[in-house]
Specification:
binds magnesium ion, binds adenosine-5'-diphosphate, 9 helices, alpha/beta
């Protein structure tokens, strides 16, 4: 087994003009593990995930993904490495004018040149995996919030990535839907060996999926550990965060 972390971040900095958002982030994500990043609104969680995938350029520091310096790659090389990274956006971002099947096909056609029969099989298989095969010909507008997220997750995994980055995968969902999504995220790690980083402020989700938790505050991880350890850490930002969130279940 490969001992090197799948994702390795060192001393990452990112500013927008006078606003310093990330100020020295270090993170290692080993194979088949999920690192959860918690933090208040506006703390830089989305900026972190966009920087990892190369949508934003780091000001300083290094980001290695599958042993390659993604922060140095451009053009075709960056596109190629990005194919091994699935990204579940905060908004879900399905095309409203296309059916579920067309949404998935659009993604497949754009990135992989599969024969039609194979692409169709893969779409069906992925929809079955998220438990929504009957939604094949439905439009996103007719789906519930939780179902939309599951379809968005299907779209992220249909390319068979090695890494998944989740930005608020369960925010705004009811607890039943949160569990459904969180269980799928765990299955991706256990059954397919995916490594992931999940940005969330949903403690139920974090509790189910996290191997390690990192709390982002003022541009740095002020503590890393288990969710339990983090929740007991005596820091005003943590007290505020946990005070405002739903309390831990079980
Ligand atoms: N493209 C951008 N240009 C300028 N400022 C940005 C940009 N993206 C994010 N920011 C700023 O970075 C900070 C962190 O944002 P974000 O990562 O979205 O927070 P969150 O932790 O809620 O996901 C905010 O102050 C936001 O206004
Ligand atoms: Mg965000």
């Amino acid at each position: 087994m490969n001992q090197d972390p799948i994702i390795q971040i060192r001393d990452l900095y990112k500013s927008f003009g006078p606003i310093d958002v990330l100020k020295g982030i270090d993170l290692d994500v080993p194979g088949s593990q999920c690192a959860v990043v918690l933090g208040g609104s506006g703390s830089g969680k989305s900026v972190l995930i966009k920087t990892i995938v190369g949508l934003l350029k780091a000001d300083r520091g290094t980001i290695k993904v599958l042993g390659e310096r993604i922060d140095l790659l451009e053009g075709d090389e960056l596109d190629k490495l990005r194919l091994s990274i699935g990204f579940l956006f905060q908004s879900g971002a399905l095309f409203d004018s296309m059916t579920v099947s067309e949404n998935l096909m659009f993604f497949l056609e754009r990135h992989l040149k599969l024969p039609l029969a194979e692409a169709t099989d893969r779409i069906l298989e992925t929809l079955e995996w998220v438990g929504l095969p009957e939604k094949l010909h439905d439009y996103p507008a007719s789906l519930s919030g939780g179902q939309k997220k599951r379809i968005a997750l299907a779209r992220s995994v249909i390319m068979a990535p090695k890494i998944l980055l989740y930005d608020e995968p369960t925010t705004g969902l009811d607890p039943v839907s949160v569990r459904l999504i969180a269980d799928l995220i765990v299955r991706l790690q256990v059954e397919r060996g995916l490594s992931s980083i999940a940005i969330t402020h949903d403690l139920l989700c974090a509790e189910i999926i996290a191997d390690t938790v990192h709390f982002l505050h003022e541009g740095r991880f002020i503590i890393s550990g288990s969710l339990e350890e983090i929740s007991r850490f005596d820091h005003p930002a943590i007290v505020t965060f946990f005070g405002n969130e739903t309390t831990l279940t079980s």
